[in-house]
Amino acid sequence: MPSAQFLCHTHDVKPGEMRRIKLGTHAILLANVEGSFYAVDDLCTHEDAILSNGALKGRCVECPLHGSRFDLSNGLPLEEPATLALRTHTLVIDGNKIFVELAD
Predict the structure, then answer these.
(1) Residue 55, Cβ neighbours under 10 Å: how many?
(2) Is the pLDDT of residue 71 over 90?
(3) pLDDT tens digits for range 12-30
């Protein structure tokens, strides 16, 4: 797992919660949806709003600025005004540690 970077422990983000985690210049939104973890860029593709300041609704995150919703499993926008997908990142869970492999 040489390209994966440590994010946090599984108990740091409880089910129904999300948090912003900085890795150098990258800001990652990590969400726990009923025990399944998802990682996407923490910036709305419409107006550069910080998505972790928005609302987690099931497997979707809602932008706090204009209400665009994104599917965390694939980054696709589900509601306008956003039309571009979020970058999704691969997670590796090793015991209680969560690692991320950043997408290009």
Answers:
(1) 13
(2) yes
(3) 999 999 999 999 999 999 9
| pLDDT at residue 1 is higher than 90 | no
Residues 86 and 89: their CA atoms lie apart, in Å, by 10
Token output for 42: 């923490």
Residue 30 · residue 62 · CB < 8 Å: no
Tokens encoding 58 = 């099931």
In the beta sheet, which residues pair with residue 8? 98
Burial track 6-33 (b if 16+ CB lie within 10 A, e otherwise): ebbebeebeeeebbebeeeebebbbbbb
> Domains in the chain and their CATH numbers?
5-101 (2.102.10.10)
Which two structure tokens, joined as six digits, stand for 1?
């797992």
Mean pLDDT, rounded, for 75-101: 96
Report which of 69, 91, 94 is spatially closest to residue 82, judged by C-alpha positions.
69
